[in-house]
Amino acid sequence: MNPCFTRTLLVASFLATVGVASPQLNAQEQALDPVVDAANEINQAARSSQLTVDKIADTTQERLQQYKQISRQIEGLEVYVQQLQKQIASQQTEKSDLNASIDEVSVVERQITPLMLRMIDSLATFVELDVPFLPEERNNRIAGLEDLMDRADVDVSEKFRRVMEAYQIESEYGRTIEAYNGAMEVNGQSQDVEFLRVGRTALIYKTRNGDTMGVWNQQARAWQELDSSYAANVQEALRIARKQLAPDLLMLPIFHSDVQAGE
Asked: Signal peptide position in this chain (predicted)?
């Protein structure tokens, strides 16, 4: 058989077969179209559902974090409230103590005011009987205390502090040396003099020109003229009191009982 004829028959047979099968394939494809469309819709619905599920999961996680944060805040507030309750209880106790103290202060105030008045009177008597140094300053201090006691705008505690301060100042006088200027009557005339105070042991005056010196005799309650032989010692003591010289041993007259000692 001619090969060319054979190939022609095969081609013709194939074309005939294809021509017959094409209508069948088209019918099958048309039958499958609804299935494919349904599958596509299912897939689309599945994707939409998955997105919804993911969104819900994210929202749930966010709400969970918010819940945990709020729970921690609540726990912190509970601890804070407990601490405040303890502080309130402590304040209530302190309030009760303060009320009791106020009642006691009222009692103490009624008792301490007469005590301060007696202290001021005793201080005034002491100054009057003491060596007469700085008489104006000391008497003014006592007068100020007496006026202070009559004032209603000053607390009792401040009044007591001022009284104790005056006592402290008087106590310090006995441990210090001091030089100050003043005026006194010498030989019937008022003159400017320099005073030297050595504690409460010695009170000496010297006129400006140094011609006259005197020492206070506490036993006699009077000034006694001082011999000129003490002039150099008195001048040195004045310089020490004014911090112009370093402290040194001083030779000054001291009265003891009714006997005058030379040093």
From this structure: 1-27
